[in-house]
Amino acid sequence: RHIDTAAIYKNEEGVGKGIRESGIDRKEIFLVSKVWNEDQGYDETLKAFDASLKRLGVDYLDLYLIHWPVSGKYKETWRALEYLYAQKKIKAIGVSNFLKHHLEDILQDCKVVPMVNQMEFHPHLVQQDLIDFCADKGIQYESWSPFMQGKVFELDICADLAKKYNKSVAQIILRYNLQKGIVAIPKSVHAKRIAANAEIFDFALSSEDISFLDGLETGERIGPDPDNFNF
Known about the structure:
This protein has helices spanning 12-22, 42-56, 74-86, 100-107, 128-137, 156-165, 169-179, 191-197, 207-214, and strands at 2-4, 30-35, 63-66, 93-96, 116-120, 140-144, 183-184. It is α/β, with parallel strands linked by helices. Helix 2 links the parallel strand 2 (30-35) and strand 3 (63-66). The longest helix is centred in the N-terminal third of the chain and has 15 residues, at 42-56.
């Protein structure tokens, strides 16, 4: 029950309403939000966090992330996250879209090492060096857009693997994430697909197939470049 939201998604109020109406204990839900770029900076981040809590109608978050590495601001933003973590208002703090040099900058003088780095990840954008760096530093790698916003379903090799393992393409890709030690956050609005996305614990991809998927790396991004964005 991992729910990934963010201030910029403009859906925190709806997520909060859904949680309350679900009848599920708050402790049974892993709730994530992110501070948006224009709200970065120490004081601004503290205000943005309080605003997110209010919209969500909760008194703590399980994970709070810096959405993008805004140059000149993300280190002060991180300092604010460390403060909120010390105040026990957040159970874990992390970053999103941070490349190795961004992480190295944070690690120079942080009190708390980022616990998560949420990155675009799929067979065309593996970035194994970054995965390895995060693993070495104890930073959990998490993937957004694991299905390449639907493009992964057009890859012949994924269709071949789905046939080989008698699974859907989505299940192949999520199992690929799992076996690489990556937390995947797939997006779907269909109940049957959401349920099917969890049915990945009754098979395993061979090491050869994992290597083959890794070898599809092209550097193609579905989303913006963390070194070159203007929002």
